[in-house]
Fold:
Amino acid sequence: MTFALASPAFRHMGAIPALYTCEGKNISPPLAWKNLPKGTKSLVLIVDDPDAPDPAAPKFTWIHWVLCNIPPETTGLAEEAGNRPAEAGMLEGLSSWNRGGYGGPCPPIGTHRYFFKLYALDTVLDDLLSPLKAEVEAAMQAHILGQAVLIGTYKKRGK
Structure:
């Protein structure tokens, strides 16, 4: 059984509904996972866009959401979970907007890919205060038991 991440809102490599973007309510989509690796003590979710600012000539990765220390008993995150304070015990990292919580797709040009990456860790990440993605990645480096990825796409419809 493979560690897997999915959303009832969009399929892997499918379009993310506008509701979850800057053209909608900008709320986090519902996520569900299954088959955690044995020994998982916490989960980390990182949502990013490697196609910024232009998929034809990407220059950087835009960070949309960093959430650490998700308890292994959880099987998902409800819609809008990223738009409320993190549940007790969880830790929000900083996005590229320099704040915690979810920020939805809002690509300036073209169709971008949004990677929802869920990591199963053999530890809980302590001593991190509003960490950046790079700090979270460094802290979890030797503790990753498995990774599940869900990719969604989005292209702005309005101006």
User: Anything to note?
Assistant: The chain has a mean pLDDT of 95.
